[in-house]
Structure formats: C-alpha cells, structure tokens
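Running this now, will post back.
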Amino acid sequence: MNSAIRIVGISIFFLAVALGVLLLTGEKIDFVAFAQLTKIDWWKIPILLASLVAWWILLGIRIRLLATTMPNGDQITVGRGIMASLLALFSAAVTPSATGMSFGLGWYLSRYLEAKSATAIAVYSLVLDLVFYAWSLPASFLVLRFALGIDVGTLIGIPALDYLVYVLSGILLTAAWMLSFRVDLLAKLVWNIFSLGFLKARRARAYAFVQRTGNVIAALRDLPWQRQLLIHFVNFLNFLFHFGAFNVLGWALGIPNFDHGAILAFQSLVVSVSMLVPTPGGTGYFEVALPKLFGLLDIPAEARVPLALMWRFLSYFLYIIIGPFIGGAALLRAAEKKA
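Update: finished.
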C-alpha cells in the first residue's frame, strides 16, 4: 500500500510540473474565467455518467467474450468482467507502465479461473488494445489532415509527424502480432532483455511465463473469424464510449469551438503515444499535451487547462479513488508479494 501512496505522490508531482510547464509556455490557468465561459446544461450530466457506465459495461462484455473460451469461463459474468476491468484501471493508475493494467486484470480473473487462463485473457486484452491503436492512430491522423484540414505535424513543428505515426502504428501492430502468433520470437526477445545483469536472476522464469502464456492464448487467437470480429467490434465500441465521454463533457459545458470529430481523433493520437510514457497513468504528459492540442482547435484559452484536468479526473484519478473500495488494497498486497 505504501508503494501505491508513493506512486500517487509521484503522479501529483508530475501534475504540478505539467502545470508549471503550461504556465511557462503561455497557457492560461484561470478557473474563474472558465466558469464564466461555460454554460452548463445540467440535464446533460446524466448522459456523461451514462457514457462512462456504458464504457465499463463494454469492458465487462469484452472480458466475458474472452472468458467463455476458457475452462470454467462461465464463472466470469459481465458484472465480474466490469469489476476486473475497474481493478485493471486502478492498477494502471498506480503503476508506471501499461503492464500494470494486465496484472490487475489477471489477478482478479485468477480468483475464478486457472492462473494461466486469467493471464491469457489479460494478455489478449492488451493485444486488442494494440490492434485498435495500430489502425486508429493513422486513421485519426488522416481524418485530421484530409477530412478536417488540420495538419498536426506542421502546427506542432514536426513536419515528419506522418511518418512517425506510421512507424508507431507498425510497432503496435508488430507487438500485437508477436503476442498472438509469434510468441517464440517474443520469448527470445524476453530472454535477451533479461540477460542484462540486474535481470538475469529472473530470466528463466520470465521466459517460461511467456511460453506458457503463448500456449494458452492459442485458444483465443484460433477463435472463428465471426467471433473475432464480434470481439473487435465490442472493443471498438468500448473505445468509442470511453473517448466519447469527453465529447459529452464538452457538450454539457457548452464549450465554444468544440469540434467533436477532431476531439475524437486527437484523443486516439494522444492516448496511443501515452503507451510510451513511463510515468504512472501518463501523468504530466496528458496534462501538457491536451491543452496544447486544444489550442490547435481554437478552443478558448481559458477552457483548455480546466478541460484537460476535468478529463484527467474522469479517466485517471477517479480510478485511484474507487480502487480501494473494489479490492485495490488486496491487489496491491498481491503485487508487492509478487515483486
């Protein structure tokens, strides 16, 4: 538990640094002006809450669809899938990498399934996310550039951004392919990485873990194509409701110049890149990147930072708050024992 408190403290530190960077780069942080700008339609707030709940339900459905392919998978109901997903979000919020989400998901599912089956579902959930970002990243970039006329690379001073987008997309797709179809290559990569001196003691265990997971995950990758399409469609809806909640927030607040299509595309870009950010939950990165991108859309200056902070609460800090009430303490004890 102490480690979680320490990481939350680190997150708050990076948040403070991000706010300092924003001030130094000319961003306006005036919450009074923001309150005067907004025109809240209170009847829209339940729609915002409904969009968040719909995201959680879709996460639960995704876990349920994957679990039914495993022995005793019927024990994983949609409700338990939701609980597993919320714990995964909490785990990701208090760990400095995307692997924290997989650990939280696998830990909860292992209470009902064999450990290897729970791990396979957690890993394949990561595969689904990687595949989504692999196609949505270039798609969002192309929509911004050709459909909405927003040349992000030129605006942020990186003319070669389009090439970087395609490279990152290829990396994500390659990672998903290795996790699904070439676990042997992934196992060799893990062996080489764990050959470093300070990791060598855990090399054999890490190598065996990757191989065992690859064997179990075959049950998921070999599903009929109709079932695979259904899972990917549910995954698409999952992200649509997740990202769309921010659109509902802007709509409810009556923010001027809130281009909903561009906002959805920008979120895909920003979240894709965040997978490479080593801070807990990408703290510091999001708080700087979002206001800067809002500026490209001519969202009023007084709304940019408050909007980013509100969205970070809904997508990150909320899960730190609710985590302890849904088993987060037990999850952290398990993580500390494993470490």
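Residues 124 and 173 are 13 Å apart (CA to CA). More later if anyone needs it.
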